[in-house]
From TrEMBL:
Spans through the membrane: none
Name by which UniProt lists this protein: Metalloprotease PmbA
E.C. no: 3.4.24.-
Alphabetical list of InterPro entries matching this protein: Metalloprtase-TldD/E_C (IPR045569), Metalloprtase-TldD/E_cen_dom (IPR045570), Metalloprtase-TldD/E_N (IPR002510), PmbA (IPR047657), TldD/PmbA_N (IPR035068), TldD/PmbA_sf (IPR036059)
Keywords: Hydrolase, Metalloprotease, Protease
Top-level taxonomy: Bacteria, Pseudomonadati, Pseudomonadota, Gammaproteobacteria, Lysobacterales
Family listed: Belongs to the peptidase U62 family.
SUPFAM superfamilies: Putative modulator of DNA gyrase, PmbA/TldD
Provenance organism: Luteimonas galliterrae
One GO MF term attached to the UniProt entry: metallopeptidase activity
Metalloprotease TldD/E central domain sequence ranges: 130-236
Metalloprotease TldD/E C-terminal domain location: 243-451
Name of the encoding gene: pmbA
Length: 453
């Protein structure tokens, strides 16, 4: 990093103690009001975000937010209420509101806390707390340096969408009437830049960013600005391609959207509503036999590392896909009950996914494709989760003889996700570290691309 990171006076444990004490008082009030079960979530977040554009300051924002959510169950009737006010009368009112709502709702056979025996008993350390002692002036200096470095790369960079620096630190406590109390503290920091190359109708925009839990893991502001500029310039003078069926290589930062579509289709909410193209697919071969996807909730400095999910259920390392075969769904306790299954400790989402690679880095992936379309940007929302039909606007580069030949845009790529998953020929080792979905670039052997004709 090219910024000084001073020592911070860390009062996070004391603040967590205060949130845990509030949680216990609220649970006691829920019981006193007749609730058979209850759960409480308390959170606090502090952050700083700055934005600059064309060498001038645009915004400086500092936030200090907190929230308290109370959910009660009267048998299988559920009520929820929330507040950001820590005064005793407000907390009492929040519990009363939740209880009043529960008394007027109908029974839901799937309602209730996750089973007590599934609660996490151990709380691991995943190195997710790294406050960044950066003030507004230092953040602005970083953002200005980032944008300036990008604008200096090439004379064709004549405009900017700006550069930004953000830092946040969040504390959270989840407690329920099973006696479970979970305490988390996390930080996240980001530097980003978006630049515009060319003029008039020939303008092209692109950017780059780095995000991490610890500031020392960020790319330097100068490197981020230069990457943004190089990406914008590389897109100048795009062409179109003839409509046809071609190999398509999704760059790593775009490839994770494909895994996101898989997660949407195997999530409990889509399944019990029967709004998924992957109904009844556990045990089905969806991917090539060499491909596996593992959930890794205990990853050091992972974006979604945790010993428990948002219901307190103990997480565990487990395969989502093994040897190409779907092993399980992604369930919280409510959706699991609706489906007659057991929670997979995924209330609140997955906890870090690692997609196995069978190829080398990005350059090797290009050489392996030989000729086809490299996608670096997707547009639109043309994905039907019920049928799996996929159709999205795309931009990127045409590849000839295993090397980038020229930029392309105005393209629509289409297929069906089941066919696309089965048609994956390679996953690269060029993992994009900026997400909880950790995958390299993905090569699909054949997709329809609609171009100039």
């Amino acid at each position: 990093m090219n910024a000084v990171i001073p020592h911070l006076e860390d009062d996070s444990q004391a603040r967590l103690d205060a949130l845990a004490a509030i949680s216990q008082r609220l649970l006691d009030r829920c019981r006193a009001n007749g609730a058979s079960q209850a759960e409480v979530s308390c959170s606090e977040e502090r952050g700083l975000n700055v934005n600059v554009r064309m060498g001038a300051v645009e915004t400086v924002e500092s936030n200090h937010d907190r929230g308290i959510g109370v959910t009660v169950y009267f048998g299988q009737r559920k009520g929820s209420a929330s507040t950001a006010d820590l005064r005793e009368e407000s907390l009492e009112s929040t519990v009363a509101q939740a209880c009043a709502i529960a008394r007027y709702t109908e029974d839901d056979p799937a309602a209730g806390l996750a089973d007590a025996e599934l609660m996490a008993r151990e709380h691991g350390y995943f190195d997710t707390w790294h406050p960044w002692g950066i003030d507004a002036d230092q953040a602005l200096d970083l953002a200005l340096a980032c944008e300036a470095a990008g604008r200096d790369v090439d004379a064709r960079i004549e405009n900017s969408d700006g550069a930004s620096v953000g830092s946040s630190a969040s504390l959270s406590v989840y407690a329920n009437s099973h006696g479970f109390v979970g305490r988390d503290r996390d930080t996240q920091h980001t530097i980003g830049c978006a630049l515009i190359a060319g003029r008039g109708d020939a303008m092209q925009r692109d950017g780059w960013y780095s995000t991490a839990l610890a500031a020392e893991d960020l790319e330097s502001a100068v490197a981020i600005g230069r990457s943004a500029a190089e990406r914008a310039v590389a897109r100048l003078a795009p062409r179109q391609i003839a409509t046809g069926a071609y190999p398509v290589l999704f760059s790593a930062e775009i490839a994770r959207s494909l895994i996101g579509h898989l997660l949407g289709a195997v999530s409990g909410g889509a399944l019990y509503r029967r709004a998924s193209f992957l109904l009844d697919s556990v045990g089905t071969q969806l991917f090539p036999s060499w491909l596996s996807i593992e959930e890794q909730p205990f990853l050091r400095r992972g974006f979604r590392s945790s010993s428990y999910d948002s219901e307190g259920v103990a997480t565990r390392e487990s395969p989502l896909v093994r040897d190409g075969v779907l092993q399980r769904y992604v369930l919280g306790s409510y959706s699991a009950r609706k489906l007659g299954l057991q929670t997979t400790a995924n209330a609140g989402g997955v906890h870090n996914l690692a997609v196995s690679a069978n190829a080398g880095g990005f350059d090797e992936m290009l050489r392996g494709m030989g000729r086809g379309l490299l996608v670096t940007e997707l547009m639109g929302q043309g994905v039907n989760n019920v049928t799996g039909d996929y159709s999205r606007g795309a931009a990127g580069f045409w590849v000839e003889n295993g090397a980038i030949a020229y930029p392309v845009d105005g393209i629509t790529i289409a297929g069906n996700l089941k066919t696309m998953f089965a048609g994956i020929e390679a996953v690269g080792s060029d993992v994009d570290p900026r997400s909880h979905i950790r995958t390299g670039s993905i090569l699909i052997g054949r997709m329809t691309a609609a171009g100039s004709d």
